[in-house]
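Example record

One chain of 226 residues, shown exactly as stored in the release files.
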Amino acid sequence: MRTIALFRKVGLVVVALTLVLSTFAQETTLKEAENAYSQEDYTKAIELYESVLGEYGESANVYYNLGNAYYKAGKVAPAILNYERCLLLNPGDTDARFNLELVRQQTTDKIEPLGEFFLARWFHAIQDLGSSNSWAKLGVVCFIFFIGCLVLFFFSRWIRLKKIGFYCGLCLLALMIISNIFAGNQKDKMVNRNRAIVKSTLGEWSEIVLADGNVGWMLSKDIQKI
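Predicted structure tokens for this chain:
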């Protein structure tokens, strides 16, 4: 039994050390990338940020910094791609959204999305204030308070408290439903990462539908997934 306990402790220490060393290595690489960016060595900064994403997985901040590095290096298309990836992970990042719109204005072939009804624009603007996880957490919090309001309504002896429980419960129920809708929509955006839909593939070519409704063909190898 003592041997098993000792192995468990050793295993926990090894795991903890691995996590610490991994975090330290990531922070070191990010610091090197920031230094390269500040010294206007954008090519090196891009390589370092790309290596962090490859080794440690996706990060909204890294995508944002990578987009900035690509933009400073004069590579507009990769900059747009990484700003889009940042916003998929963190839709409420106003800096990334501002930079994305700024860079899009400098593209030669501008693709204007199909017009939206103003209520739909407001709906999407509010939805983009939070990520899928943020809206899901808000939905859980609303549900907990909703249960509290139900208890207050059914078991309180005071009429005023019953009314408070009833009306607050209705508001929380509506907010909970909206939060879950937003969370589902943001999750769908994460799954369906595209600004152009691939309809079909023929050999090395793919038929795509752009955001403005136009249809065309392009080489499959030139298509980048957001």
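Notes: The longest helix spans residues 2-38.
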